[in-house]
User: Fold this.
Amino acid sequence: MSIRVAIVGYGNLGRGVEMALKHNPDMELVGIYSRRDPAGVATLGGKAFHMDSLLDHKDSIDVAILCGGSKEDLPTQTPALAKHFNTVDSFDTHAKILEYEASITPSALEGKKVALISMGWDPGMFSLHRLYSEAVLPNGENYTFWGKGLSQGHSDAIRRVEGVAAGVQYTIPSSEAMQAVRSGSNPDLSTKDKHKRECFVVLKSGADATKVEQAIKTMPDYFEPYDTTVHFITKEELDLNHSKMPHGGFVIRSGATSSEHKDVLEYSIALDSNAEFTASVLVAYARAAYRLHKMGECGVKTAFDIAPALLSIKSREEIIKEML
Assistant:
């Protein structure tokens, strides 16, 4: 029996989920739910519905993959939907994950559903590497570098600023800081030491550029802690030079097993499409959500709570034979 999946929200991430489902033969797309008129939603073949009809179809949905933004969509959508569906999302405001979890837990427990939150590559895959490497090398420090690449969450946050018609944000790691970490010297690095954020913004007609720039640079959690540059460009330039979504990053653990021996563990990714890779992670965790629910589990869980075997389409015996 196929795992019946609904896509909730159909931007770049939702489109990526639709692509990813085509590579997972144990899953079936039952519908794409958008706030837009379904007639105007150009899918890759999936049937589009208006968001208002989602609850009408809940008996035919095993897992809902929530593809809204972390700043405004998910904080309201997930608590409302977790009562009715097993859900998976990519909420990525690191500083607010515990607060976000607490807002969802009552709904998921009441509905006896599984809500997997903050799945993606960071938080998500990078989080696991930070945990594994710290557990193995307790005497050391974790360092995370993002980019160079386009951040979906930060770009979405830019587009929510009053006066912004369109925009993207790139995260740029410091090569000097990375070299210092890889040397094993365990440098003390501030947030600004490790990254810069570069924004390319198209203004709405009549918008005040100074006010928009100030709103972006002072945005808590997203831009305020960083060295942020804002460039104002035309829509034509945005479409020509900033339509792709590459990204990548590194998690490095610099530690020691003794006074004589240093160890550096590194996990890295290089992505042509941030959205498509994040979507692929969500789909794998949708499989885990379905299996956990079948096992009688409920409540909110993160990547730390999920056994790796639950992600694979293969049996436990197959993955032990092939990968262990």
Remarks:
- The CA atoms of residues 317 and 323 lie 10 Å apart.
- The chain has a mean pLDDT of 96.
- The chain is about 35% helix and 25% strand.
